[in-house]
TrEMBL record:
Keywords assigned: 2Fe-2S, Iron, Iron-sulfur, Metal-binding, Pyridoxal phosphate, Transferase
Protein family (similarity comment): Belongs to the class-V pyridoxal-phosphate-dependent aminotransferase family. NifS/IscS subfamily.
Organism lineage: Bacteria, Pseudomonadati, Pseudomonadota, Alphaproteobacteria, Acetobacterales
Name recorded for this polypeptide: Cysteine desulfurase
Domain Aminotransferase class V: 10-373
Reactions it catalyzes: (sulfur carrier)-H + L-cysteine = (sulfur carrier)-SH + L-alanine
Role summary: Catalyzes the removal of elemental sulfur atoms from cysteine to produce alanine. Seems to participate in the biosynthesis of the nitrogenase metalloclusters by providing the inorganic sulfur required for the Fe-S core formation.
InterPro entries reported in the protein's UniProt record: Aminotrans_V_dom, Cysteine_dSase, PyrdxlP-dep_Trfase, PyrdxlP-dep_Trfase_major, PyrdxlP-dep_Trfase_small
EC class: transferase
One biological process term in Gene Ontology: iron-sulfur cluster assembly
EC number: 2.8.1.7
């Protein structure tokens, strides 16, 4: 880590988390001392690698209340989401199912939205449902969409821009009654809030390692066994992962992912309390100087460690970020050249161009201290006090 990185206040854990030192230690041991292919089990080196993979599978399963046989390793949540949505829809079509509707929500991650939209080319009917001002999906809206025979519904557990937590326990029975499969993108939720695939009524669920202090490049898809959910694989190959995901598994990454899940399960409540405290410290301090600051979707149930802050009128998030180089946060908007396009997530919640352009995403983490939250608040206030004219 160089000095710039060490001095920076990192408030962008929703984008990615640093590897937990305990995760790093596990991965380094494997990199330095083990070299087997987990699929070459005719010798001890391969068998050891396979054991590492199975240990990791058990840890990932435990974090979300699944059976280890229900975990398919992938390269991350993007791949898991693609496999779940395209794989399930294609399998049903191949079995002769007349169900063509695939439903998702306007605030989903791009990899879900694009996977659903891509299916239109294969004769499916993508339906993108709206959310209310707090980013929540109204069960009545889902119920109405399910009047047409539906293959699959994909609803994320927690949103990556606002932290809004959907009420899956209330929505799942509607999907089940309609005879459709329910998939959830759990990338932001796993390790950050209690996740139980049975209680949530999921047929499929996607996780990402690098969102929970594990390495980048690893993820998993939960595929329910009873009643059994079948998928068409995305890749042709050696038939690893029960034929659903061919390719040699990266044992050291998966061991790190497993260790990250083990830690997350043990420390999730402690982490959540810590993150809620950091958020409260940060917001109280910011509001002393900027009382008009708003948390987008504040009334909705939200993750404790991820919030979208709307600055008072007259400030532009892009300018504020530029004025605080030592504080790493995300824009609540997608940026193209010098223009700010409102984030589609905030736009779906009814925010206008100006409101979205004043929004920042902040996400402290497990290793952030209260003193750092105070320093971050001071830097933000200082930067926001450099009054900037709104473009347009
Ligand atoms: C909600 C959500 N889904 C999916 C992804 C993609 O995850 P990955 O980087 O593991 O492909 C992310 C991360 O950007 C995310 O926040």
């Amino acid at each position: 880590m160089n000095n710039v990185e060490r001095d920076a206040l990192y408030f962008d854990h929703a984008a990615t988390t640093p590897c937990d030192p305990r995760v790093r230690a596990v991965m380094l041991t494997i990199l330095e001392t083990e070299h087997g292919n987990p699929h070459s089990t005719t010798h001890a080196a391969g068998r050891r690698a396979a054991e590492r993979v199975e240990e990791a599978r058990a840890e990932v399963a435990a974090l979300i209340g699944a059976d280890p046989r229900e975990i398919i390793f992938t390269s991350g949540a993007t791949e898991a989401n693609n496999l779940a949505i395209k794989g399930a829809a294609r399998h049903l079509a191949a079995m002769g199912s007349p169900r063509r509707r695939v439903i998702t929500v306007a605030t989903e991650h791009k990899c879900v939205l694009e996977s659903v939209r891509d299916l239109a080319q294969e004769g499916f009917e993508p339906v993108i449902l709206p959310v209310d001002f707090n980013g929540l999906l109204d069960p009545a809206v889902l119920q109405k969409a399910l009047e047409v025979p539906t293959a699959l519904v994909s609803i994320m557990a927690a949103n990556n821009e606002t932290g809004v937590v959907q009420d899956l326990a209330a929505l799942a029975p509607l999907v089940e009654q309609a005879g459709a499969l329910l998939h959830s993108d759990l990338a932001q939720a796993a390790g950050k809030m209690p996740v139980d695939v049975r209680r949530m009524g999921l047929a499929l669920g996607s996780i990402s390692s690098h969102k929970l202090y594990g390495p980048k490049g690893a993820g998993a898809l939960f595929v329910r066994r009873r009643p059994r959910v079948r998928l068409q694989p995305l890749f042709s190959g050696g038939g690893q992962e029960r034929g659903l995901r061919s390719g040699t598994l990266p044992d050291f990454l998966l061991a790190g992912f497993g260790e990250a899940c083990r830690i997350a399960l043990v420390e999730q409540e402690k982490d959540a309390a810590h993150l809620a405290h950091l958020r409260d410290v940060f917001l109280a301090r910011v509001r002393q100087s900027l009382p008009d600051v708003v948390v987008n979707a504040e009334p909705a149930p939200r993750l404790p460690g991820l919030f979208s802050l709307r600055l008072p009128e007259g400030r532009r998030a892009l300018d504020v970020i530029a004025a605080m180089p030592g504080l790493a946060v995300s824009l609540g908007s997608a940026c193209s050249s010098a223009e700010i396009a409102p984030s589609y997530v905030l736009e779906a919640m009814g925010l206008g161009r100006d409101e979205a352009g004043r929004s920042l995403r902040l996400s402290p983490g497990r290793f952030t201290s209260a003193a750092e939250a105070e320093r971050a608040a001071d830097r933000l206030v200082q930067a926001a006090q450099i009054k900037t004219a709104l473009a347009g």
